[in-house]
Design a protein that fits this description.
The protein is an alpha+beta fold. The protein has two helices and six strands; from the N terminus they run αββββββα. Strands 1, 2, 3, 4, 5 and 6 form a six-stranded antiparallel beta sheet that branches. A hairpin with a 2-residue loop joins strand 3 (about 60-80) and strand 4. Helix 1 (about 10-30) packs antiparallel against helix 2 (about 125-154). The radius of gyration is 29 Å and the shape is rod-shaped. The two termini are about 15 Å apart.
Length: about 150
């Protein structure tokens, strides 16, 4: 007996189910949570400090470097462009400072960064695999339906 819709074929139904599951997993892979990174300390004349955020590959929303010194000269780098600054008291540098070198003086520093982190990025790979399998199953079930439909009209 010929089935009247492609939903009568298990390959088509399971393929659509896998495609739906792939969409749900892809939405889960795109879920983000805020993450905060803080670091502080004291740097002396001649010290170099590189700032590394473990999740820097994610979207950095806000980053600040706050320096405090009685009299200091520093060389800092934002996006690989070095800049020098001489200051007394507090100096706030907005943006993701990747490194700092102390030319003169002692400096207390506080580095603060806030980023959006993808909590479940590996679900995207599973979703992609399920999408491929679901597409193949849906297509093969639909082709079988069309073949049976053509065979039923003869």
């Amino acid at each position: 007996m010929m089935k009247s819709t492609p939903f009568g074929y298990s390959a088509f139904k399971y393929g659509l189910l896998l495609l739906l599951l792939a969409i749900i997993l892809a939405l889960g892979a795109s879920y983000t949570t805020p993450q905060i990174y803080e670091e502080s300390g004291v740097l002396k004349e001649g010290d170099n400090k590189d700032f590394y955020i473990p999740y820097a590959y994610n979207r950095i929303i806000e980053a600040n470097l706050i320096l405090n010194s009685k009299n200091a000269t520093v060389l800092y780098s934002i996006d690989s462009s070095p800049e020098a600054a001489s200051f007394e008291g507090n100096l706030t540098i907005p943006g993701y400072v990747t490194s700092i070198s102390i030319i003169h003086g002692n400096v207390d520093y506080r580095f603060y960064a806030r980023a959006q982190v993808y909590s479940y990025p590996y679900l995207g790979y599973v979703a992609f695999l399920l999408m491929i399998i679901g597409t193949v199953l849906t297509f093969s079930g639909y082709m079988r339906f069309l073949r049976d439909l053509r065979g039923g009209k003869r």
